[in-house]
From TrEMBL:
Residues annotated as domain DNA binding HTH: 249-287
Pfam families referenced in this protein's UniProt entry, alphabetically: HTH_8 (PF02954)
Ranges that cross the membrane: 6-25, 37-56, 62-84, 96-115, 135-159, 171-192, 198-215
Recorded superkingdom: Bacteria
Protein name: DNA binding HTH domain-containing protein
Amino acid sequence: MEMFYVFGFIALTAAIFKIIILYQVVTSSQLTSALNILVLALICQNSFEFLSYLSWANDPTFSAYMVGGVFVSLFAVAAAAISLIMKVSESAHGKLISMTYAAFGLVLVALHSQGLIVSGYEQVGYTIIAVEGTWYSLFSIYVLTAVFIALGTLIKGSLASNRQVKDRCRVTLIAITPLCIVAFGVVALRQLGFNSSTALAMPLASTLLVWVLMVDERGDFLRLKIKWAILLKLAASSKDIDLNNWSNQVEKMLILEALRGTGNNKSEAAKLVALNKTTFHRKAEKYLAEANPGYAPARISS
């Protein structure tokens, strides 16, 4: 039973980390709102996991209810993840796909409440395993559908012409791949007749997912990318750098890279370099004119 406590506290730790991450996310757009919903669903899942493992030895009935909560929260997690991905990729049919998938999840919740998805739970080794109900295969389809929609949409988005969409999709794809591997692996192993559990892998993979998405939402990855690009340019042109005009040259590189990284969106670029919009616009106009003869101000979007 000691391992049950270990798994329980892993889930608790994951929930605490997600609460901290949730506190860091500022809700300022539909994208961050979708991220908040996903994080909340994952916190619920980890909390149910913690309670189920902690109470299994003393109160299996209560623990079974908590494991049921894990399953219900899984439906919510998958639906929230699909909704987030549709917003990240700016899919033309994103709302329809999200609503359809959420409706599918609600149907499964109703079936689960009747014991048709999972008929019970049992201890197998160091973990708690769901006993498959009559319609358990629908749950497998639900999970696999989420995996394929997520990966397919993000791969397509990573090839988009819009630079912001492309970069967001690539980061999200990297972040969500471990979670997809865990989900796919568990379903595949169950279909092959092996008992499988996400007790360890799922809390870790989901925490990694929300941390990466939070860091990306704050613009930290883009800032790092810009700094790296500037360092490479400085290294490549070190012989031509005028030391008397060093700060202006670095500032020029910083502003131009910020514009390039945000798809020429001056508002987002100004935030990245911590300048007010008026100052940034004035400097951007100057440096763009220097870098591009015949530059037209309309090239910078609001």
